[in-house]
Amino acid sequence: MTDDVLLSARHLSVRFGGVLAVNDVSFDVRRGEVFTLIGPNGAGKTTVFNLISRIYQPTSGEIIYRGAQGEIELTRQPAHKIAALGIARTFQNIELFEHASVLRNLLIGHHTHRESGFWGELLFTPATRAAERRARERVEKVIDFLDLQRYRDLMVSGLPYGVRKVVELARALCAEPQLILLDEPSSGLNVEETDDMAFWIHDIVRDLGITVLMVEHDMGLVSRVSDRVVALNHGEVLAAGTPAEVQGSAAVAEAYLGSADDVASLRRTA
Known about the structure:
The protein has 2 domains: 1-86 and 177-270, 3-Layer(aba) Sandwich (Rossmann fold); 96-176, no CATH class. The protein is 38% helix and 24% strand. It has 10 helices and 10 strands. A 6-stranded mixed beta sheet has the order 6-7-8-3-9-10, sandwiched between helices. Strands 2-1-4-5 form a 4-stranded antiparallel beta sheet, covered by helices on one side.
């Protein structure tokens, strides 16, 4: 079973002053799956992402990542090492270089694989030129994969919101991750754009062999793309299982809709 697990969170807790934001959360993410964290606002979902990507340090617990470099305890790694280990991420609020082109943003996403040193860059040696060609080839493949050809030379600042979301996904893919963290990938998207996102998430796993760990509110998207789901509330695990199992949980329904009496009333009037 361990060979099949790419990431393990064990008894994660984090406290901010007097607030226990995450409390004893454990889960395993298997290779080649879409694993989704759901829950109402303030449930601790993005805090878990921030623990994995090393923005936050847990108060207790551990995160084991079994990537190409072997088994690594992530809580002992600095944040700037995470992408090089094979973990990439998107954010709820799009984080792009607004006054740079799409192509430039994607090349920046590939910087963790830079092969040349200071003098090679300064003198632009043959080895540096070859590395630059390889980087551009990788970026062009991602542009083709996500149908971004028409935007490649445009400034990000002039693009529609939905396109920017895809560009941010593209930049994460340019880091050549084994695990990608998608934080609210459908946030702000219309129905057609959400359909495209579902299609791409499937292809990221199937065609690129990348494992997906996702935070998402759109339960339609969760049901369409997720293999397994963990529901959080007040920083604790409420339920875990398939999307249907978790959505059928009374505890999950209560967390989203109110008290058990409220849920029963909604069902009677539905």
